[in-house]
Design a protein that fits this description.
The chain is of the alpha/beta class. It has 2 domains: 88 residues, Urease, subunit C, domain 1, CATH 2.30.40.10; 303 residues, Alpha-Beta Barrel (TIM Barrel). 34% of the residues lie in helices and 21% in strands. The protein is built from 14 helices and 15 strands. The strands form 2 sheets. The chain has an 8-stranded parallel beta sheet with strand order 5-6-7-8-9-10-11-12. Strands 3-2-1-4-13-14-15 form a 7-stranded mixed beta sheet, with no helix packed on it. 51% of the residues are buried. Bound molecules: fe (ii) ion. The site of fe (ii) ion has 5 residues, from strand 5.
């Protein structure tokens, strides 16, 4: 918990620059000019300053395991799950921890200071849970990690209810599930009822992988909304992926969306992963397979984006850059209107923080002294350029920094050498 003065910040809602004063790790003042003595000062140099990125959906127990023990040849979700099943028995807590710690450093350097990570509880043991609880504790001064007890092979299909409850007893924060991977639609529905009742009884948030399929009849989200409303969990439940919604009948969707609003269901889309995993069995034209993000936003639902995977059985790429995620969503969902582009930025910052129920988030007096200085001027330019994270500040301490990126051209005349490459 330290003090810091950040000069010359361009904020989302101010045309003129502001200074931000952090005292004891908390934002104490935001004004046009703040003068204080004897505390560290950094200069944002009129660059855009944002609250940290928040990744609302990730799998830290699988990350950086690409090609272990082999690659996913078909690129499908189902081969990815099979491959993960082959890898699981060979995993050790130390190996999971080592990869997760390395990944956390990548995330922090990119300005992400909160991550909701699912952790598989459907195996023979809970070493993934033990490892990630350790990582959460080890990294707590730098990044908030929220863990979800996730029965990857199906709560009922893999008979792992006891494991899931044990993981929650050990300190895992959120109830997870995967109804579309249960054997039948009925078992999928039943798993939702069981999981929501556990969440209600324990006072926990819920986040289910839900309808991550191209099957338009995969309608577990309907049951998730119904159970959320029945149990009074409104605003505390998230549906992750929801890709079947892409393929649903429009009339049915018009009924469904009102149920989602009634339940105040939080939406978590994973654009990088679903654009590569969905539509694999289609002939041309191939479906994109993302959930209906613009329609959900227009209905007033909270929509957040997750990175989901970095170099694991499901996705061979990624460097954990949440702006890459926002960029992909914007393109895949035709969201090129100004408000739509800004909402893609919000989906990896303020909306994601709200979905995770993070306390004291945002650049305002009284909030945590957490911020990121980006080498750009606003939200839209951030998505366009995916710029350098000049400073990453956590509770008033600079925990990562990068020199401004400058391209030095060597063309024929001085004029041509001016840095005009990326200016608007
Ligand atoms: Fe996932």
């Amino acid at each position: 918990m330290t003090d810091l003065l950040v000069k010359n910040c361009m904020l989302a809602n101010n045309k003129d620059p502001r200074d931000i004063l952090i005292e004891g790790g908390i934002i104490k003042d935001i004004s046009t000019e703040i003068i204080v003595e004897k505390i560290p000062v950094i200069d944002a140099d009129f660059h855009f300053v944002t609250p940290p990125f928040v990744d609302s959906h990730f799998h830290m127990d699988a990350t950086l395991s690409y090609a272990l023990p082999r690659v996913n040849k078909s690129g499908t979700l189902l081969e990815g799950i099979k491959l993960w099943g082959e890898l699981k028995p060979t995993l050790t807590a130390d190996a999971i921890k080592e990869r997760a710690l390395k990944f956390c450093k990548w995330a922090i350097a990119r300005g992400t200071l909160a991550i909701r990570s699912h952790v598989d509880v459907s195996g023979q043991n809970l070493i993934g849970v033990e490892a990630l609880l350790d990582v959460k504790e080890m990294m707590k001064d730098f990044i908030d990690i929220q863990l979800v007890a996730f029965p990857q092979d199906g709560l009922l299909r893999a008979n792992c209810l006891n494991n899931l409850k044990a993981a929650l007893d050990m300190g895992v924060d959120v109830v997870g599930g995967i109804p579309h991977f249960e054997r039948t639609m009925e078992e999928g529905h039943e798993s939702i009822r069981i999981l929501c009742e556990i969440a209600e009884k324990r006072g926990l948030l819920t986040d289910l992988h839900c309808d991550e399929t191209d099957d338009p009849m995969s309608r577990h989200v309907e049951r998730l909304a119904m159970e959320t409303t029945r149990l009074g969990l409104n605003g505390r439940v998230a549906g992750s992926h929801l890709t079947s919604m892409h393929s649903m009948d429009n009339y049915y969707f018009s009924k469904l969306i009102s149920m989602l609003v009634e339940a105040d269901l939080n939406i978590i889309a994973n654009p990088l992963i679903n654009i590569t995993i969905q539509g694999r069995q289609d002939n041309y034209p191939k479906r994109r397979g993302l959930t209906r993000i613009p329609e959900q936003l227009n209905a007033g639902l909270k929509v957040a984006f997750g990175h989901d995977c970095v170099m694991d059985p499901w996705y061979p790429l990624g460097s954990h850059d949440m702006l890459e995620v926002a960029h992909m969503a914007l393109h895949c969902c035709h969201m090129t209107g100004i408000n739509e582009m800004e909402s893609c930025f919000d989906a990896v910052t303020i909306n994601a923080a709200s979905v995770l129920h993070l306390d004291n988030y945002g650049i305002k007096k009284g909030s945590n002294g957490d911020l990121v200085v980006l080498q750009c001027k606003d939200k839209i330019e951030a998505i366009r350029l995916k710029p350098a994270r000049l400073f990453v500040v956590r509770r008033g301490e600079v925990i990562s920094s990068t020199r401004p990126v400058r391209y030095e051209l060597n063309l024929r005349s001085k004029k041509e050498n001016e840095d005009l490459l990326f200016k608007g």
